[in-house]
Design goal:
Number of domains of chain A: 2
CATH superfamily of the largest domain in chain A: MetI-like
Number of helices of chain B: 3
Keywords (chain B): Membrane, Transmembrane, Transmembrane helix
CATH class of the largest domain in chain A: Mainly Alpha
Number of helices of chain A: 14
Distance between the termini of chain A: 42 Å
Shape of chain B: rod-shaped
Largest sheet of chain A: none
Largest interface: A-B, 18 and 23 residues
Radius of gyration of chain B: 19 Å
Oligomer: heterodimer
Order of helices and strands of chain B: HHH
Largest sheet of chain B: none
Chain lengths: ~325, ~70
């Protein structure tokens, strides 16, 4: 059986070699399976090394120097841990970390709660649920640049629909509803936009989790006369938890480096109330041109996200094993 | 006479080479470093957050390769 299988494989290989040009065929015939596998993955590895690994090591090296990208010909001096010391003693950067934490916490909380609730409703399979699913998914498909500009118009105090709607409900004059100009409202304006845009993504992942729960578990619970509330907390939530955690991980990593939306909506203002870490990093790197210091800042953020992702994946594996 | 013989007891690894407790320690360091980095109360905690995070992350990367 094995011999005949080998003969068949050999015949197929011979046919493939005959079909290729003579010099290439001779070379391919001499390659082992392992070599061919390496040949296939080599371009991906090369690309990863070029655009991910090399810049990372380059940034680590730069973080110990006084390099400035606007003076490429100036002598580069090793400054040891000075850049890290300045980053970790700077009250402005500390404030930007707190702004980031505030943004990440609230966006993730809102997106998870609303996303899971929507997924749970869509999973009821009511009439027209496919239409509503498509409609809900639209914000996620838009470009952040489009969403940013679109919401800037919505937030306009004079002509914006958002200000008009709030004014209609609360009675506050539209000129007083300065979502992007008020220091207390601007962080929430960004949270609202991010939640509007990315809740469908969380909903989609949660929906996949809910659809993976077999019906017989609910049928068994019905037989045991478990209430819908008990079924929700004892079946639905534990079985969808790995999916919810995955959605939180993806959104958490993404929101830690949130840049485009904040830059378009407020540019970090008013003052520095919405200056998240990525905006502060961009200012340090491309306005102050302190490339070495901003590299150190980027490494601090990288280690924070990498460390958190590590423990999160460990927790996720534990939940999956249950 | 019985064929049952007790299997020789494996010598226990020293504490710092055991995966379970060391991984827990690394996770605790990462969590502590993370909280220190984003807390709004004391600048000194923020200053030492990176070294705590880095120690935890490096430790986790190494000890997660230890056998169970």
């Amino acid at each position: 059986m094995t011999a005949s299988h080998d003969t068949f494989s050999d015949k197929m290989a011979d046919a493939a070699v005959r079909a290729t040009p003579e010099p290439l065929a001779t070379r391919v015939r001499g390659l082992s399976d392992r070599a061919i596998a390496w040949l296939f993955i080599a371009p991906t590895i090369a690309l990863l090394l070029a655009i991910n690994i090399f810049p990372l090591f380059w940034a680590i090296w730069l973080s110990f120097t006084n390099f400035r990208a606007n003076r490429p010909n100036a002598a580069v001096r090793n400054v040891g841990l000075d850049n890290y010391s300045r980053i970790l003693n700077d009250p402005d950067i500390w404030a930007s970390m707190q702004t980031t934490a505030h943004f990440v916490f609230w966006t993730i909380l809102l997106q998870t709660v609303i996303g899971f609730a929507l997924a749970w409703l869509i999973d009821r399979k009511f009439r027209g649920h496919a239409f509503w699913t498509t409609l809900i998914l639209i914000p996620m498909m838009l470009s952040p640049a489009v969403v940013g500009n679109f919401w800037r118009f919505l937030y306009e105090p004079q002509i914006g629909l958002f200000a008009y709607a709030v004014s209609f409900v609360s009675g506050i004059p539209t000129s007083d509803i300065q979502m992007l100009g008020n220091v207390h409202l601007a962080p929430w304006a960004i949270i609202i936009v991010d939640t509007w845009m990315w809740t469908p993504y969380v909903m989609l992942i949660c929906l996949a989790g809910l659809r993976s729960i077999p019906d017989y578990i609910y049928e068994a619970a019905e037989v045991d006369r478990a209430s819908p509330w008990r079924q929700f907390w004892s079946i639905t939530v534990p079985m969808a938890l790995p999916f919810i955690m995955l959605a939180v991980l993806f959104r958490g990593i993404e929101n830690f480096k949130m840049f485009d939306m904040v830059n378009l909506l407020t540019g970090g203002g008013p003052g520095s109330t919405t200056e998240v870490a990525s905006i502060a990093l961009k200012r340090d790197a491309f306005e102050a041109w302190a490339t070495g210091r901003s590299s150190a800042f980027a490494i601090v953020l990288f280690v924070a996200v990498f460390g958190l992702a590590n423990i999160y994946v460990k927790a996720l594996n534990k939940v999956k094993q249950r | 006479m019985t064929d049952h013989t007790l299997a020789p007891k494996k010598p226990r690894r020293p504490f710092f080479l055991r995966r379970g407790p060391m991984e827990a320690l690394a996770v605790a360091l990462i969590a502590l470093g993370f909280l220190m980095l984003f807390q709004p109360f004391a600048l000194v905690l923020y200053t030492y957050s990176f070294i705590t995070l880095l120690a935890g992350t490096l430790m986790f990367t190494i000890v997660s390769k230890f056998p169970e």
